């Protein structure tokens, strides 16, 4: 088999190119020690407003017909267990891979400061994947229990994969903020399971890990970002307030990552965002499809 040639990210010299000045002092060390780091001011007020508005337009119908299955409603509303909200956004769970059909969200993948931080943590050659706009509807009790993102990924090494969680609203313990267990990334990938039928699709969790004595709920301002290790235990709780909780989240990995076992990864939507690919390693998704087939086989690992 002939290996694919190296690809270079558009608009960036090979080997990476830092777009803005970012102080590295202590960032990598903090990330390695506790498994996450909070970066203030990743997005400004104009960017926050742009992503909020574009998500609303998508939910209200400005989306290609073949991509509509990428609009996912909260499980409790979908099952008719709570009243249908008057505002369609108040019933949403997530917009999956909006970069596949929308130029506004594609720009998020190459936010210069985001890539600068990712380069500091993971190295100069970067692939982004699995962009999601995630809602936590007002007064909805849906939770995503403690889990490790690496459980979902059939490629690695885990140390070269990070999640990026950017709220577009101020978040705290009351409106579904992010809870983490510092240092938990130093442990292995654990078994995961679906907690119950009222958990949103594929929102797997670590059995018996409803609470942890070292857990910390982060208060993160709109536009700040949390970068976290793929093995870090993390969860989000219910939104019991009248406030929105909207989040843009994606993952970034080193372009030196490779498949760890056979699986289909087209749905991850790999995009080379900085530097170059490497022979025998992950490749950008050639032609990301707009439709979504939830029956696609998903292979997990532990």
Q: How would you explain this protein's 3D organization?
A:
The protein has 302 residues and is α+β, with helices and mostly antiparallel strands. It has one domain (43-274): Jelly Rolls (Sandwich). Helices cover 15% and strands 21% of the residues. It is built from five helices and 14 strands. The strands form three sheets. Strands 1, 2, 3, 4, 7, 10, 12 and 14 form an eight-stranded antiparallel beta sheet that branches. The protein starts with 26 loop residues before the first helix and ends in a 28-residue tail after the last strand. 41% of the residues are buried.
Our Rg estimate from Cα atoms comes to: 18 Å
Strand segment count:
14
Encode the helix/strand succession as letters. HEHEHEHHEEEEEEEEEEE
Main sheet properties: 8 strands, antiparallel
Write the layout of secondary structure elements.
Blueprint: H1 27-34, E1 36-39, H2 45-59, E2 71-73, H3 75-78, E3 92-96, H4 103-108, H5 112-122, E4 126-135, E5 144-147, E6 155-156, E7 161-167, E8 178-180, E9 216-217, E10 225-229, E11 234-236, E12 246-254, E13 258-259, E14 271-274
Provide the descriptors you would attach to this structure in a database record.
302 residues; alpha+beta; Jelly Rolls; 8-stranded antiparallel beta sheet; 4-stranded antiparallel beta sheet; 14 strands; 15% helix; globular; disordered C terminus
């Amino acid at each position: 088999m002939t290996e694919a040639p190296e690809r270079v990210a558009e608009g960036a010299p090979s080997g990476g190119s830092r777009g803005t000045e970012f102080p590295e002092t202590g960032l990598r060390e903090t990330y390695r020690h506790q498994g996450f780091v909070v970066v203030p001011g990743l997005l400004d007020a104009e960017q926050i407003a742009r992503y909020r508005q574009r998500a609303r337009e998508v939910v209200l119908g400005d989306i290609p017909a073949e991509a509509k299955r990428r609009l996912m409603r909260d499980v409790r509303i979908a099952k008719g267990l709570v009243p249908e909200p008057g505002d369609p956004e108040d019933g949403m769970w997530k917009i999956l891979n909006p970069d596949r059909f929308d130029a506004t969200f594609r720009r998020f993948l190459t936010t210069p400061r985001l890539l600068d931080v990712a380069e500091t943590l993971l190295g100069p050659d970067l692939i982004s994947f699995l962009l999601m706009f995630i809602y936590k509807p007002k007064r909805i009790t849906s939770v995503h229990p403690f889990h490790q993102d690496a459980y979902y990924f059939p490629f690695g090494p885990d140390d070269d994969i990070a999640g990026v969680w950017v709220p577009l609203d101020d978040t705290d313990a009351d409106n579904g903020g992010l809870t983490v267990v510092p240092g938990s990334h130093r442990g292995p990938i654990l078994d995961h399971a679906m907690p119950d039928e009222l958990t949103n699709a594929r929102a797997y969790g670590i059995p018996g890990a409803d609470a942890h004595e070292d857990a910390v709920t982060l208060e993160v301002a709109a536009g700040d970002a949390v970068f976290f290790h793929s093995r870090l235990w993390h969860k989000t709780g219910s939104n019991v307030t009248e406030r929105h909780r909207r989040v843009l989240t994606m993952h970034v990995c080193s372009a030196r990552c490779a498949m760890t076992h056979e699986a289909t990864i087209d749905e991850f939507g790999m995009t080379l965002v900085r530097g170059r690919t490497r022979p025998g390693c992950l490749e950008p998704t050639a032609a990301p499809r707009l439709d979504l087939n939830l029956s696609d086989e998903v292979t997990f690992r532990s």
